[in-house]
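task queued by scheduler; priority normal; single chain, no ligands, no partner chains; default sampling; output format set to structure tokens
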Amino acid sequence: MPNLSHFIEGFALKKGKPIVQEFEDLLSLGVEPIIYGQDAGGPSLEDLANQGLLPEQKIEFGDVTYFMSKIVEAEDRPAFIYYLSRTNDSGKKEIFVHSAYKSNSQNEWRTISHTTAAKDWFGKGLGELTTGFPFEIADLIEKAYSDGQETGLEKIDMDIYLGIPNAPNEENTGLTLEPFVRSIPILSKEEIWKQRTTTGTDPEQRTTMQTREFPDKIASFATGKPDSLVFEEGYSPNLNYCFKTFETQNPIYGKVTSYYFLSDNLRLQYSFHIDEQERSWIGAAQVIDPKVTRFGVKNIKLLYDKISSQNDRVHMDLFAPAFEYRQQILPEFLGGKSENNSGYYDATAFTHKIPIVAEFRKRAMEGLLKTSPIEEILAPDSDDISPELQPERYYPFGENYSSAHIIPPTTEMDDAFRVYLNRDRLAGHLDCIIRSQLSGKGRLSDDDVSYLVGEFQNHVAVFDSTKAQLVYNKLTEGFSRLVT
């Protein structure tokens, strides 16, 4: 089971003078921010300071800190500068400075991977999904935005959008993906060997073996129609696994409610959106692993199927938004213009036919989507498990044996089982096997031991490995004491 411990830790948006001072202290230690695109004519730290775009708030996420400027309006989009602080493998502090904006159509916050010399176009990495910020902190970025709206967003020149590379190519002056590519592995098996020779020696590049743990495509269209979408087994969004929801404001959609779901196998997370007109779409998908690149985005790229036009110029996929640029919608699914922005057209004739979007939309409209803490998702109610494994509190086998012999009721044990939510369930599992095994069979079988330890690891080890090891040791000691 993937490690979901960072979901339990909780994250916060922190603001004010202490954040300003903390960043100044970093600079006083001699840490020099690396401003993306500065060597190609981009702004200096002084330029950013003059525009009031030094950090005023921060979000801590795992091993990195996002120091963020105020949210501003640039070219009709909300945007901000962020200073990603981390400690590298050599123990040296680093600060990478990038810019971010909110996608009007997708309703997702993104980093800018690269841009043109004229700064009139934003690069979207190795696909839009590779530029999104971690879903775990999406609500905090949105809070920073809504807080800024309350006081009024300052309008800033588009020059805040960083990303002009150091070595522009001749064919498309100002464009290169090299720095971004170096920080994200390519999961396509066809591209792996090529990337091994072209992405340099960036320490963040993962090995070929590590990237192959995900399928070539997380979802495919069986017949080339949106209603034929099928997910790879285990990778479908589970609409019962909603761990977060919040409302946002969007210049195209108006009020949007965003929902975040885990996949069946708990390895991916998905964002879904629905507006007040009940237009619905999937915003993006990300891996659960909290590791991020120097751009502050997840470092694994996911691949998925697309439906293309006959001339192969237009492509749509499961992450198509409800409104999109006309040239990015297949002709047979093209709807009317947006009332709020004439540059966007309705694409719900496509998105609403995707089965999982249709089911999400139906449940959202009927008020059937429930948000649950991660702990509850990992430890569902006992009704969800098979009858033979229903919880039974210390059902003793006669007077001499019960699960209490294996799970001593000590403080350490109770603390270690705190995230299981229902310690009685594991006790019930143990009792069922104790009762069946003690009738002349003696010790628990290896299969039983493996099963019980596996149950423990699935529900406890993902949260606290140290305490998990303590309980694991006590369990195995308890098994060895069960003799005839």
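post-processing summary
- Residues 379-481 form one domain.
- The chain has a mean pLDDT of 75.
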